[in-house]
Design a protein that fits this description.
mainly alpha; 0% strand
């Protein structure tokens, strides 16, 4: 495989990962907004507290989706460490997400239903970028064997290309 082909394969893998992450995240977003608006409607919790409750429910949902759908082919050893890191980075995402909502609500006084949903959505978007990077980098690590196999395959393909170059078109190949 050429360097260009290897890059294309790598970009295709990243694209599929982003799509799977996005699918789980989209459903998690619906869970988050559904719980957020339900809690705001049936309780007297303040907007940020209702958002924190909704975010925690969505985090639990997302872990299951990421582990068993998006990153199901990743290393499954060390689940305790994986879950600990997931919760740590999710907590940072929770602070980012709800920090935006807090600032909009308590610093700027934008606390209407539509405004709360907008700033919750904005905070979720910023937190999602952080979560994607941290989950794929630290939590759901790629198996080292996959990288080794890919490197070995590219090496073998380069060797094959060298052999094919030696056998010019129109010339008879050397039989060994």
């Amino acid at each position: 495989m050429t360097e260009r082909g290897a890059l294309r394969v790598r970009l295709d893998q990243v694209w599929r990962e982003v799509a799977k992450f996005g699918a789980v995240g989209a459903v998690g977003t619906l869970v988050n907004f559904g719980v957020f608006n339900l809690v705001r409607h049936v309780t007297d919790l303040h907007v940020v507290r209702a958002s924190v409750v909704a975010t925690v429910v969505a985090i639990a949902f997302n872990y299951v989706g990421f582990r068993y759908f998006t990153y199901r082919d990743r290393d499954k050893t060390g689940r305790t460490k994986e879950l600990t890191l997931f919760l740590l980075f999710s907590a940072v995402g929770l602070v980012i997400e709800n920090g935006v909502l807090y600032a909009a609500t308590y610093w700027f006084g934008w606390d209407g239903r539509l405004q709360a949903n907008f700033f919750k959505f904005l905070g979720m978007g910023i937190a999602t970028l952080f979560r994607f990077w941290s989950y794929r980098t630290w939590v759901f690590k790629a198996l080292p064997a996959r990288e080794t196999v890919a490197h070995a395959e590219s090496f073998l393909e380069k060797e094959q290309e060298k052999e094919e170059e030696k056998e010019k078109p129109g010339e008879k190949p050397v039989v060994r």
